Amino acid sequence: PETITVQELAARMSERGADVIKTLMRMGVMATINQVIDPDTAELVVTEMGHRPKRVAEGDVEIGLADTTDAEGTQIARPPVVTIMGHVDHGKTSLLDALRATDVAAHEAGGITQHIGAYQVTLPSGQKITFLDTPGHEAFTAMRARGAKVTDIVVLVVAGDDGVMPQTKEAIAHAKAAGVPIIVAINKMDKPGADASRVQNELLREEIQVEQLGGDVQSIEVSATKRMNLDKLEEAILLQAEVLELRANPDRLADGVVVEAKLDPGRGSVATVLVQRGTLKVGDVLVAGAVWGRVRRLVDDRGQAVESAGPAFPVEILGLAGTPQAGDEFHVVDSEARAREIADFRARRDRQAELARSAGGRGTLEEMMK
Ligand code: GTP
Ligand code: MG
């Protein structure tokens, strides 16, 4: 067939029709379930949804394997990805730094650390935890607004001497909206005025019921500056991760999310990505948002060049032709031509959306001038 309906497309990908419609909407295409869409659009939807499209003939798109639902047995346990959120000055940065210092691998490597927007800690047991080291709320909201789900667990930092504050509530709202489980870290417990049970009662009013009050939310008393109970917090994270049964297939072309990206004067475009599925390798061709490139170099969170990065590994990519945006998804594709085609389409789509927005803006202005 030359064309395909939304419903047929959804069925071939084993996705829900509503999700295909949502993806189309994100691309600026309004469609109903029975609507016929052209092959170019269909191909993009397929890629956007994390599947591999296959064009069997000009004008026809055949959907390959439902890549997002990797077969049983291909998936292995992966580290949890954690975001730390909380009110201003409650100790998010201090806690991230303190947790980072618990990394046994970093000590072996001489303790060289580098800020790439995410890092991974290896515990004495060998288990790993990935922390997103980006300004919590903004990064979280930016990524959520773009439909990316990166965080498995939110660690909610509440200062024991200050209690639940406006941004604590905001963080709770974000985590709940995203359906991400919360672990409470009551920080600054070294301070004389700190009172954990007061904080826990305040949290109850926000419908966060900690284990100490009969609920199922883990709550740990910590001190970031005194490095107190960091191991307990990490244990709590691993326990939560076990409940979530986080798994991914490392043996496929990689995809994931851009955590941070910048134009570095010396190195060109540098994007920190979190691999979510598959293994990203040097030499891979990928599309990230409206940008494409061939991976020239991969650098880990300790500044070491690496050959590859598997699920839940944060890594810097060098070699992109442009700078993607935080929250953009990336997909490894099988050719440069294909990568360029997708990136061009998205750039065009973004420009059109931008034009439509500014035209809309003028429209309302004209309305006001009437
Ligand atoms: P913003 O990024 O500005 O929102 O702040 P933050 O949440 O990252 O807090 P940050 O880590 O910058 O800590 C704020 C202040 O609290 C700093 O002066 C820290 O030294 C102090 N602080 C953080 N954790 C602790 C702690 O466990 N005990 C004590 N006594 N002070 C702490
Ligand atoms: Mg901070």
From TrEMBL:
Keywords: Cytoplasm, GTP-binding, Initiation factor, Nucleotide-binding, Protein biosynthesis
Residues that coordinate or bind GTP: 86-93, 133-137, 187-190
Compartments, record wording: Cytoplasm
Residue ranges annotated for the Tr-type G domain, each copy included: 77-245
Molecular-function annotations in GO: GTP binding; GTPase activity; translation initiation factor activity
GO CC entries: cytosol
Biological function: One of the essential components for the initiation of protein synthesis. Protects formylmethionyl-tRNA from spontaneous hydrolysis and promotes its binding to the 30S ribosomal subunits. Also involved in the hydrolysis of GTP during the formation of the 70S ribosomal complex.
Similarity section: Belongs to the TRAFAC class translation factor GTPase superfamily. Classic translation factor GTPase family. IF-2 subfamily.
Protein's UniProt name: Translation initiation factor IF-2
